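tool_call: predict_structure(chain=1)
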Amino acid sequence: MEDDLTRSESKVPLQAELFPDMVTEYNDGRDELNLAEFPISAIGSRSDPNIKTLRFEDRFFDKSAGAMVDRKLIVTASDEYGLPTTADDEVLLGLLQISRLQKFESPTVAFTPYQLLRILGWSVSTYNYRRIREAINRWVGVTLYYDNAWRDKKTGQWVEAKFHFIEFVEFYKQGNESVFAPDGASVIKWNDLIFRNFCEGNLKTLDFHLYRALESGIAKRLFRFLDKRFYHRKRLVFALEVFACDKIGLTRPIKVSTSGKTTVDVAQIKRRLLPAIKELEEQKFIFAKDPEDRFTKDPAGVWQVHFERYIESDERQPQQPVLEIAVEDVGLLEGRLIGHGVTNAQARRLVSEYDDERIEQQLDALEFLLAKGGEGAPQNRAGWLVKGITENYGPPRGFKSRAQIAHEAQEKAERAKAKEEARRKKQEQEEAKKASEAERYAADEKKVETYLASLTDKEREKLEADALKDSPLAMGRTGSPFRRALIHSHILELLSKLTDSTD
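tool_result:
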């Protein structure tokens, strides 16, 4: 492969024929809107071989549908190649640019590694050629499960979609003819669903010059997501945990308090985000802010993160309203309230005036009654919620809150853990006992063999006779384990007496 790739490096006429719109430095890029919305790869240069699945989800109010939408994306990897990394995400984005340069004429795209390297700004090297091949191998093995999280350009709806980005790949090999591409080119074929979105214009501009200038994978992911959201507003605020973990792709860091309660480690999230944010500030993509202004708490105690797009002007336009992007930017409880028909203003007031546990209990009680059905199910969900929270309704008959269910599940898990720990300790003790007995037996065997070796034949015969005289069943059974055991026991007893007398 390396020889083949090196050969393609020198085929400049081929490059010009395949990619007539290629320029010295590719800057005018494009990004598919769904790919900018949720992360599709692990953050970092390599993925954990023990992790084969990524999960991202959020909840927001879809104005076109007039309802709350729960969105979820699951990314699964093949056992052989694992989850895609930040570099793999770049390769996929580079293939999109090549497809665009070919005017989206076909889902089958001819390319060379050299072309990809030029677009991505990577150095021409055997190492990077290998990275490209490995990245494409990983994408072939990746399956994506979009649950109400894939925006179909044609219908404008959030749909359920399950597919591979790349359906087919053929790497160029010297001397092998291909029916899909000219000599010297490799081929990939886009899945029909994503290619249809390409053709229907579900794309946004992407400054590839700025994108290539960013060093960290987190910064590149930040740039793509924020660049999409800045299309409507120049100032944005997001709920920090949802933003960092479900939009950027950071792993949720968990900390355990002295009381045993687990919470998300917000300080660690900030530490991981800040260097990437600094990159975007230095590239004049966003205005610089002090950490205390970048990260704030809302009245409900939910941590938020703030961004303002950099404008080449002294006029900051402070009168522009901040876009709080539906539910995901103001917290889960507020979003659940809105989803049941409570107005935005009422939801914000309730979250600011009452504690989370109280609101969550009433939400869980309502959803319990709705699931149960019958006469007890409220017809006016919003009215029931507002009154239930303000008056603190008692729990319905048979109701268990999420906190109770979680507590019971935790207790069950702890009991199972304790049982398993007790079983493990017992097993360890038994194994230690067996090992000790085996060691002791081996030592005794050695003593016996040493003692027997020190005796003459007559002495040995007499000793055996003395050992067996009280056990007539063993007489004449030469070589039997029973007979041997008696002799060995007799010798050990003699050795013990000799030791006692010496002492």
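agent: Confidence is low (pLDDT under 50) at residues 1-17, 19-24, 314-330. Proceeding to next step.
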